[in-house]
Amino acid sequence: MPEIMGWMTQILKDNPDVVSLVDYGKTYENRTISLLKIGTKTGGKKKAIWMDCGIHAREWISPAFCQYFVREILQTNKTDPKMQEMLKNMDFYVTPVLNIDGYIYSWKDNTTRLWRKSRSPGPEGCDCYGTDLNRNYYANWGLIGVSFNCCSEIYPGSKPMSEPETKAVTDFIGNRSDDFLCFLTIHSYSQLLLVPYGHPNVAAPNYDELMEVGLAAAEAIKKVHRKEYIVGTSPDVLYANSGSSRDWARLQGIPFSYTFELRDNGTYGFKLPEDQIQPACEEAYSGALHIITHVHDKSFSISSSMATATATMWTTMLALAVTISTLL
User: Fold this and answer.
1) Which of 165, 261, 282, 283 is labelled catalytic?
2) pLDDT in the model for residue 92
3) Cα dihedral angle (167, 199, 266, 184), rounded to 10 degrees?
4) Could you say which DSSP state residue 181 is in?
5) Is the peptide bond between 197 and the residue preceding it cis, with omega within 30 degrees of 0?
6) What average pLDDT does range 164-183 have in this prediction?
7) Is the pLDDT higher at 179 or at 319?
8) In what side-by-side order are the strands of the sheet with 192-195?
9) Which of 136, 152, 156, 250 would you call most buried, defined as having the most Cβ atoms within 10 angstroms of its Cβ?
10) How far is CA 209 from CA 140, 184, 232, 240, 257, in A?
11) pLDDT at position 302, please?
């Protein structure tokens, strides 16, 4: 984790014109939760993209992807007009590791490598530690796909938002949810793109569009290294669940919300070999970029069209006023 924090500081130092480092919460063990805010500093209010990695401690490919993503968009921004346009119109908020306590614990030794949850103590009378942070959000909390056995890997906590890590995200986004166009949370493994919702009896109002964009993103992923990603709701392609950050984001009104489940399909599982890290990040970047580009173009092409129409209307009205004045 010190290496990741050092990397974040270096990214800020190397790119002060487009990068800010924002501390926005504390973990149970009092570690600072930080993100990189990336975007052209216009001085005005901007739309935003959210990405978090490392919500589950053992999913080590996830923080690696967030680092890769940041590096790529910053490098691309130097020469690519499209990326420059997107960073001018939107800010990217990227949290490389959300579950810092659990992530550090998973590096302790071989006995802790597959730790999933946070590191907060269980309720009174429970000797086990940790809450599944991706079951702790206020989104159909506790209804399905959880266990209230505090030793379970899918223990959702004593109540919604009981964990400081979860509350940090909801406080940060909740105060400005109208600004966010897209919410991406990065996990492993299974090679999936999951859309809301985790409850089988609830459908997102824009489900068809989420699927259309997701399927196109899966095609973009496949073009990189021929890996197949399945797209769908969690109940349809994985398992039903509740209390996820993806579902919470959609319920907040953020229109595009996706969970990425990166490589692989189970051969190595959470212990992805080192030689697969780079290709896994390359293909996932292609999929994420497709979604982000779609979100950007949808929002700003509409804004641009409306601005053009308004300008045309005012020009016409002005010409008409001049004509009437001349006739009089």
Assistant:
1) 261
2) 98
3) -50
4) E
5) yes
6) 95
7) 179
8) 19-26, 32-38, 90-95, 47-53, 180-188, 256-262, 192-195, 230-233
9) 136
10) 22, 16, 12, 21, 11
11) 57
Query: Rounded distance, CA 302 to CA 305, Å?
Result: 5
Any residues with CB less than 8 A from the CB of 106 and at least 6 apart, and which? Answer: 57, 58, 60, 112, 113, 114, 115
pTM: 0.89
d(CA 140, CA 236) in angstroms, rounded, equals 17
CA atoms within 13 A of residue 182's CA, in its CB half-sphere: 25
For range 266-270, the mean pLDDT: 94
Enumerate the β-bridge partners of residue 95: 52
To the nearest 10 degrees (0 to 180), the angle between helices 61-77 and 277-327 is 40
- pLDDT tens digits for range 281-301: 999 999 999 999 999 999 998
Tokens of 153: 């890997």
Indicate if 219 belongs to the active site: no
Contact call for residues 238 and 231 (beta carbons, < 8 A) = no
Distances (CA, A) of 161 to 29, 84, 157, 165, 190: 17, 36, 8, 9, 27
The angle, 0 to 180 degrees and rounded to 10, between the axes of the packed helices 2-14 and 61-77 is 10
Q: Which amino acid is at 166?
A: T
Q: For 229-245, what is each residue's pLDDT tens digit?
A: 999 999 999 999 999 99
Tell me what the mean pLDDT of segment 135-156 comes to. Answer: 96
Q: pLDDT tens, 313-323? A: 443 344 344 34
Structure tokens at 84: 């420059």
Cis preceding linkage at 155, omega within 30: no
